[in-house]
Amino acid sequence: MNTILTVFLQISGGLRTEVNSFLSEYAVPVIAMLLIVGVGIGVVMNYDKIIDRDGQGTRKEGIVNLLWVVGYIIIGLAIIAAVIALVNSKLKMSL
């Protein structure tokens, strides 16, 4: 019985190491990439409105649309961070 518990503790320690490694090596760069790509997509989608190409006074609308896109990205990243924090607290790990 004692050996079985020892084996389970070793397996869980390996799992913690793997998840911690994944979070530090992949999660942070992916989150940064999502933020940058999302802002880029928002600018591209609203470029004509932001620069007010036709002189119709659409600059404010374009900037507000861009802020909505950035807001949705930040909310999505907050959800991802909450999931990471939940996993982190359940496995009692540190980044």
From TrEMBL:
Domain of life: Bacteria
Transmembrane segments: 26-45, 66-87
Key words of the record: Membrane, Transmembrane, Transmembrane helix
Name the UniProt record assigns to this protein: DUF4134 domain-containing protein
